[in-house]
Design a protein that fits this description.
- This protein is mostly helical.
- It has 6 helices and no strands.
- The protein has helices spanning 20-45, 55-71, 76-88, 100-111, 119-131, 141-151.
- α2 (55-71) runs antiparallel to α3 and α5 (119-131) packs across α6.
- The longest helix has 26 residues, at 20-45.
- The protein is globular and about 55 Å long.
- The N and C termini lie far apart (51 Å).
């Protein structure tokens, strides 16, 4: 039987309250569930006439977020925000084509609380999504990373 969290993952003597390390691990597990949900939704619900803004593009942006984020030495918390924003940055195409970034922000605002994202996290994620609006005008390092990852696709053979 489980009697509580391991001592290194808890804050209290009863070993019932997770500490920040455990909260990060839980958030990463929730991200895996969110990633599966969003990629499935993009795969099944996006129209077939989107040759650039398709599920493959979203996966590519998430991968390049990780590569650039590691190179730029972002924290685990920042990486979670970046990868989440990458999942949602073109999800607005599920609703419509005009101002798809705003529609993406709308979807993120509706879905992320179900995965225990906090209001401050959602605000930053929404700012990152908005930063992908063309023409790009990033205002900080995280916005620069998502903009670079979003455009990595251009000019490649694939």
């Amino acid at each position: 039987f489980v009697k509580g969290l391991k001592p290194r993952f808890c804050e209290d003597k009863l070993r019932l309250t997770p500490n920040q390390l455990m909260e990060k691990k839980i958030a990463l597990l929730r991200f895996d569930d969110l990633e599966e949900y969003m990629l499935d939704r993009l795969e099944t619900d996006l129209t077939n006439n989107l040759y650039y803004h398709n599920v493959k593009h979203t996966i590519d942006v998430v991968v390049h977020i990780e590569i650039l984020g590691i190179e730029e030495k972002v924290s685990e918390d920042e990486m979670l925000l970046l990868k989440t924003a990458a999942l949602f940055h073109d999800s607005g195409f599920l609703i419509g084509y005009k101002d798809h970034e705003m529609l993406s922000i709308q979807l993120a605002t509706e879905i992320l609380p179900k995965y225990s994202y906090l209001p401050d996290q959602i605000k930053i994620i929404n700012e990152l999504i908005y930063a992908t609006r063309m023409p790009h005008n990033p205002k900080n390092k995280l916005e620069q990373i998502i903009c670079d990852a979003d455009l990595d696709y251009l000019g490649r053979n694939d």
